[in-house]
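Problem: given the chain below (298 residues), write out its structure.
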Amino acid sequence: MITFKQIDALYWIAELGSFEAAANKLNMSQSAISKRIQELEETFDVEIFDRSKRNARLTEKGGELLDYARDLLNSRDQLLERVSARNVLVRRFRLGVTELTALTWLPALVEALRQAYPKVQIEPSVELSSELFRKLESDQLDLVIVPDAYSDSRFHSTPLQSVNNAWICSPGLIPDADPVSLETLASYTVLTQGSQSGTGLIYERWMATHNVQMPRTLTSHNLLVQVGLALSGIGVSYLPKACLSHLIEQGSLRALVTEPELPSVRYVALHRVDRQFGLNQDVAQMAQACCDFSRLLL
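Solution.
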Protein backbone atom coordinates (compact mmCIF):
# COMPACT_ATOMS: atom_id res chain seq x y z
CA MET A 1 0.00 0.00 0.00
CA ILE A 2 1.18 3.54 -0.69
CA THR A 3 3.04 5.57 1.96
CA PHE A 4 3.78 9.26 2.36
CA LYS A 5 7.48 8.49 1.89
CA GLN A 6 6.69 7.18 -1.59
CA ILE A 7 4.43 10.16 -2.33
CA ASP A 8 7.15 12.59 -1.16
CA ALA A 9 9.66 10.87 -3.44
CA LEU A 10 7.35 11.18 -6.45
CA TYR A 11 6.63 14.84 -5.72
CA TRP A 12 10.24 15.93 -5.32
CA ILE A 13 11.52 13.99 -8.33
CA ALA A 14 8.88 15.72 -10.49
CA GLU A 15 9.53 19.09 -8.81
CA LEU A 16 13.35 19.00 -9.07
CA GLY A 17 13.62 17.08 -12.36
CA SER A 18 15.86 14.18 -11.33
CA PHE A 19 16.18 11.27 -8.93
CA GLU A 20 19.55 12.60 -7.74
CA ALA A 21 18.22 16.06 -6.84
CA ALA A 22 15.24 14.56 -5.02
CA ALA A 23 17.52 12.19 -3.09
CA ASN A 24 19.65 15.15 -1.95
CA LYS A 25 16.53 17.08 -0.95
CA LEU A 26 15.22 14.18 1.14
CA ASN A 27 18.66 13.27 2.57
CA MET A 28 18.62 9.75 1.21
CA SER A 29 20.47 7.64 -1.34
CA GLN A 30 19.46 7.59 -4.99
CA SER A 31 18.90 3.82 -4.80
CA ALA A 32 16.50 4.29 -1.87
CA ILE A 33 14.43 6.89 -3.70
CA SER A 34 14.37 4.68 -6.81
CA LYS A 35 13.06 1.83 -4.64
CA ARG A 36 10.18 3.99 -3.43
CA ILE A 37 9.16 4.79 -7.00
CA GLN A 38 9.45 1.12 -7.93
CA GLU A 39 7.13 0.26 -5.03
CA LEU A 40 4.59 2.80 -6.27
CA GLU A 41 4.78 1.36 -9.78
CA GLU A 42 4.25 -2.15 -8.45
CA THR A 43 1.28 -1.01 -6.35
CA PHE A 44 -0.53 0.62 -9.28
CA ASP A 45 0.94 -1.68 -11.96
CA VAL A 46 1.89 1.34 -14.12
CA GLU A 47 5.11 2.99 -15.25
CA ILE A 48 5.42 6.38 -13.54
CA PHE A 49 8.59 7.72 -15.18
CA ASP A 50 9.74 7.28 -18.77
CA ARG A 51 13.13 5.66 -18.26
CA SER A 52 14.07 6.01 -21.93
CA LYS A 53 14.66 9.74 -21.30
CA ARG A 54 17.70 11.24 -19.58
CA ASN A 55 15.64 13.48 -17.35
CA ALA A 56 12.93 12.28 -14.96
CA ARG A 57 9.95 12.68 -17.28
CA LEU A 58 6.55 11.53 -16.06
CA THR A 59 4.40 9.19 -18.11
CA GLU A 60 0.75 10.08 -18.65
CA LYS A 61 -0.29 7.89 -15.71
CA GLY A 62 2.57 9.32 -13.67
CA GLY A 63 1.27 12.83 -14.24
CA GLU A 64 -2.20 11.77 -13.15
CA LEU A 65 -0.78 10.22 -9.98
CA LEU A 66 1.24 13.38 -9.29
CA ASP A 67 -1.96 15.48 -9.29
CA TYR A 68 -3.44 13.23 -6.59
CA ALA A 69 -0.13 13.24 -4.71
CA ARG A 70 -0.13 17.06 -4.55
CA ASP A 71 -3.67 17.07 -3.15
CA LEU A 72 -2.76 14.45 -0.57
CA LEU A 73 0.39 16.28 0.56
CA ASN A 74 -1.47 19.60 0.76
CA SER A 75 -4.15 18.04 2.95
CA ARG A 76 -1.51 16.45 5.16
CA ASP A 77 0.36 19.75 5.58
CA GLN A 78 -2.83 21.67 6.33
CA LEU A 79 -3.77 19.17 9.02
CA LEU A 80 -0.30 19.21 10.56
CA GLU A 81 -0.34 23.00 10.65
CA ARG A 82 -3.80 23.06 12.19
CA VAL A 83 -2.99 20.41 14.78
CA SER A 84 0.32 22.01 15.80
CA ALA A 85 -1.57 25.11 16.93
CA ARG A 86 -3.32 23.25 19.74
CA ASN A 87 -2.91 20.31 22.09
CA VAL A 88 -4.34 17.03 20.93
CA LEU A 89 -5.78 14.78 23.60
CA VAL A 90 -4.01 11.47 24.13
CA ARG A 91 -6.91 9.16 23.38
CA ARG A 92 -7.99 6.37 21.08
CA PHE A 93 -9.93 6.76 17.88
CA ARG A 94 -12.11 3.74 17.06
CA LEU A 95 -12.45 3.48 13.27
CA GLY A 96 -14.75 0.93 11.62
CA VAL A 97 -14.38 -0.11 7.99
CA THR A 98 -15.65 -2.81 5.65
CA GLU A 99 -13.50 -5.60 4.21
CA LEU A 100 -13.11 -3.83 0.86
CA THR A 101 -11.71 -0.74 2.58
CA ALA A 102 -9.35 -2.87 4.69
CA LEU A 103 -8.03 -4.65 1.60
CA THR A 104 -7.39 -1.47 -0.38
CA TRP A 105 -6.76 2.01 1.05
CA LEU A 106 -6.99 1.59 4.85
CA PRO A 107 -3.17 1.44 5.40
CA ALA A 108 -2.67 4.76 3.61
CA LEU A 109 -5.52 6.34 5.57
CA VAL A 110 -4.14 5.14 8.92
CA GLU A 111 -0.66 6.44 8.11
CA ALA A 112 -2.07 9.83 7.10
CA LEU A 113 -4.01 10.11 10.35
CA ARG A 114 -1.01 9.03 12.41
CA GLN A 115 1.14 11.72 10.87
CA ALA A 116 -1.54 14.36 11.48
CA TYR A 117 -2.48 13.13 14.98
CA PRO A 118 0.63 11.36 16.35
CA LYS A 119 -0.72 11.22 19.93
CA VAL A 120 -3.93 9.43 19.01
CA GLN A 121 -4.12 5.64 19.15
CA ILE A 122 -6.05 4.43 16.10
CA GLU A 123 -8.03 1.21 16.62
CA PRO A 124 -9.41 -0.15 13.31
CA SER A 125 -12.27 -2.62 13.29
CA VAL A 126 -13.21 -4.61 10.17
CA GLU A 127 -16.82 -5.81 10.12
CA LEU A 128 -19.93 -6.10 7.98
CA SER A 129 -21.71 -2.80 7.39
CA SER A 130 -24.67 -3.75 9.59
CA GLU A 131 -22.36 -4.63 12.50
CA LEU A 132 -20.38 -1.40 12.07
CA PHE A 133 -23.63 0.58 12.11
CA ARG A 134 -24.76 -1.25 15.28
CA LYS A 135 -21.45 -0.54 17.03
CA LEU A 136 -21.60 3.13 16.03
CA GLU A 137 -25.14 3.27 17.38
CA SER A 138 -24.06 1.76 20.72
CA ASP A 139 -21.02 4.08 20.93
CA GLN A 140 -18.50 1.26 20.46
CA LEU A 141 -17.00 3.04 17.42
CA ASP A 142 -16.27 6.71 16.78
CA LEU A 143 -16.57 6.68 12.98
CA VAL A 144 -17.43 4.11 10.31
CA ILE A 145 -16.86 4.09 6.56
CA VAL A 146 -19.63 2.11 4.86
CA PRO A 147 -21.80 2.00 1.72
CA ASP A 148 -24.53 4.63 1.76
CA ALA A 149 -27.31 2.22 2.72
CA TYR A 150 -28.35 3.74 6.05
CA SER A 151 -30.20 6.93 6.84
CA ASP A 152 -30.46 8.09 10.45
CA SER A 153 -30.67 11.65 11.81
CA ARG A 154 -28.56 10.64 14.83
CA PHE A 155 -25.49 10.38 12.59
CA HIS A 156 -23.59 12.91 10.54
CA SER A 157 -22.94 11.57 7.03
CA THR A 158 -20.07 12.76 4.82
CA PRO A 159 -20.26 11.54 1.19
CA LEU A 160 -17.05 9.98 -0.12
CA GLN A 161 -16.28 8.45 -3.51
CA SER A 162 -18.12 5.60 -5.22
CA VAL A 163 -17.08 2.02 -5.99
CA ASN A 164 -17.91 0.60 -9.42
CA ASN A 165 -19.05 -3.01 -9.30
CA ALA A 166 -19.77 -5.44 -12.13
CA TRP A 167 -21.28 -8.89 -12.51
CA ILE A 168 -18.22 -11.14 -12.55
CA CYS A 169 -17.79 -14.87 -13.15
CA SER A 170 -15.36 -17.41 -14.59
CA PRO A 171 -14.94 -16.99 -18.38
CA GLY A 172 -16.72 -20.23 -19.33
CA LEU A 173 -19.68 -20.01 -16.99
CA ILE A 174 -22.02 -17.88 -19.13
CA PRO A 175 -21.62 -18.51 -22.88
CA ASP A 176 -24.02 -15.73 -23.93
CA ALA A 177 -22.44 -12.77 -25.67
CA ASP A 178 -22.60 -9.35 -24.04
CA PRO A 179 -24.84 -7.69 -23.12
CA VAL A 180 -26.34 -10.19 -20.67
CA SER A 181 -29.83 -9.60 -19.29
CA LEU A 182 -30.76 -9.86 -15.62
CA GLU A 183 -33.16 -12.64 -16.56
CA THR A 184 -30.23 -14.64 -17.93
CA LEU A 185 -28.24 -14.07 -14.75
CA ALA A 186 -31.18 -15.31 -12.70
CA SER A 187 -30.84 -18.76 -14.28
CA TYR A 188 -27.40 -19.18 -12.67
CA THR A 189 -26.29 -19.43 -9.07
CA VAL A 190 -25.83 -15.86 -7.84
CA LEU A 191 -23.19 -15.24 -5.17
CA THR A 192 -24.48 -12.51 -2.89
CA GLN A 193 -23.18 -10.62 0.12
CA GLY A 194 -26.58 -10.62 1.84
CA SER A 195 -28.48 -7.81 3.51
CA GLN A 196 -26.00 -7.56 6.41
CA SER A 197 -23.59 -6.08 3.88
CA GLY A 198 -24.22 -2.48 2.84
CA THR A 199 -23.45 -3.30 -0.78
CA GLY A 200 -25.63 -6.40 -0.60
CA LEU A 201 -28.52 -4.39 0.84
CA ILE A 202 -28.20 -1.72 -1.86
CA TYR A 203 -28.26 -4.32 -4.63
CA GLU A 204 -31.15 -6.25 -3.10
CA ARG A 205 -33.17 -3.04 -3.19
CA TRP A 206 -31.99 -2.31 -6.74
CA MET A 207 -33.00 -5.77 -8.01
CA ALA A 208 -36.38 -5.41 -6.31
CA THR A 209 -37.03 -2.19 -8.24
CA HIS A 210 -36.32 -4.09 -11.48
CA ASN A 211 -38.65 -6.94 -10.44
CA VAL A 212 -35.81 -9.46 -10.70
CA GLN A 213 -35.69 -12.50 -8.45
CA MET A 214 -32.62 -14.67 -8.08
CA PRO A 215 -33.98 -18.14 -7.15
CA ARG A 216 -30.55 -19.72 -6.66
CA THR A 217 -28.33 -17.71 -4.35
CA LEU A 218 -25.30 -18.51 -2.25
CA THR A 219 -24.53 -15.94 0.45
CA SER A 220 -21.05 -15.22 1.73
CA HIS A 221 -20.06 -12.29 3.91
CA ASN A 222 -16.39 -12.68 3.01
CA LEU A 223 -15.21 -10.81 -0.10
CA LEU A 224 -12.23 -13.09 -0.71
CA VAL A 225 -14.49 -16.15 -0.48
CA GLN A 226 -16.78 -14.63 -3.10
CA VAL A 227 -13.82 -14.08 -5.41
CA GLY A 228 -12.70 -17.68 -4.86
CA LEU A 229 -16.16 -19.04 -5.64
CA ALA A 230 -16.35 -16.94 -8.79
CA LEU A 231 -12.92 -18.19 -9.90
CA SER A 232 -14.11 -21.76 -9.30
CA GLY A 233 -17.09 -21.31 -11.63
CA ILE A 234 -19.62 -21.80 -8.81
CA GLY A 235 -21.67 -18.77 -9.81
CA VAL A 236 -21.78 -15.11 -10.80
CA SER A 237 -21.28 -12.29 -8.29
CA TYR A 238 -21.25 -8.50 -8.06
CA LEU A 239 -17.68 -7.53 -7.24
CA PRO A 240 -15.48 -4.38 -7.33
CA LYS A 241 -14.15 -4.26 -10.88
CA ALA A 242 -11.02 -2.16 -10.25
CA CYS A 243 -9.75 -4.46 -7.49
CA LEU A 244 -10.04 -7.50 -9.75
CA SER A 245 -8.74 -5.87 -12.94
CA HIS A 246 -5.57 -8.00 -12.92
CA LEU A 247 -7.61 -11.23 -12.85
CA ILE A 248 -9.91 -9.93 -15.57
CA GLU A 249 -6.99 -8.87 -17.78
CA GLN A 250 -5.27 -12.25 -17.47
CA GLY A 251 -8.51 -14.05 -18.34
CA SER A 252 -9.16 -15.72 -14.99
CA LEU A 253 -12.40 -13.79 -14.54
CA ARG A 254 -14.91 -12.19 -16.90
CA ALA A 255 -16.65 -8.89 -16.22
CA LEU A 256 -20.07 -9.10 -17.84
CA VAL A 257 -21.72 -6.26 -19.70
CA THR A 258 -25.30 -6.29 -18.49
CA GLU A 259 -28.53 -4.47 -19.24
CA PRO A 260 -29.18 -2.64 -17.04
CA GLU A 261 -25.72 -2.06 -15.56
CA LEU A 262 -25.14 -2.25 -11.85
CA PRO A 263 -25.24 1.16 -10.18
CA SER A 264 -22.10 2.33 -8.43
CA VAL A 265 -22.07 2.19 -4.62
CA ARG A 266 -21.46 5.49 -2.85
CA TYR A 267 -19.45 5.26 0.37
CA VAL A 268 -19.99 7.59 3.32
CA ALA A 269 -18.28 8.32 6.63
CA LEU A 270 -20.67 8.27 9.58
CA HIS A 271 -20.17 9.57 13.10
CA ARG A 272 -22.55 10.47 15.88
CA VAL A 273 -24.00 13.98 15.85
CA ASP A 274 -23.44 14.26 19.60
CA ARG A 275 -19.69 13.90 19.02
CA GLN A 276 -19.46 17.38 17.45
CA PHE A 277 -19.67 19.38 20.66
CA GLY A 278 -18.23 19.79 24.14
CA LEU A 279 -15.68 17.35 25.51
CA ASN A 280 -15.95 15.17 22.39
CA GLN A 281 -14.69 17.86 20.01
CA ASP A 282 -11.48 15.89 19.40
CA VAL A 283 -13.58 13.00 18.03
CA ALA A 284 -15.27 15.34 15.57
CA GLN A 285 -11.88 16.70 14.47
CA MET A 286 -10.53 13.20 13.89
CA ALA A 287 -13.71 12.30 12.02
CA GLN A 288 -13.37 15.29 9.73
CA ALA A 289 -9.71 14.52 9.07
CA CYS A 290 -10.65 10.93 8.27
CA CYS A 291 -13.31 12.15 5.84
CA ASP A 292 -10.84 14.50 4.13
CA PHE A 293 -8.32 11.73 3.52
CA SER A 294 -11.01 9.25 2.54
CA ARG A 295 -12.07 11.46 -0.36
CA LEU A 296 -8.52 11.34 -1.68
CA LEU A 297 -7.78 7.67 -1.13
CA LEU A 298 -10.99 5.77 -1.81
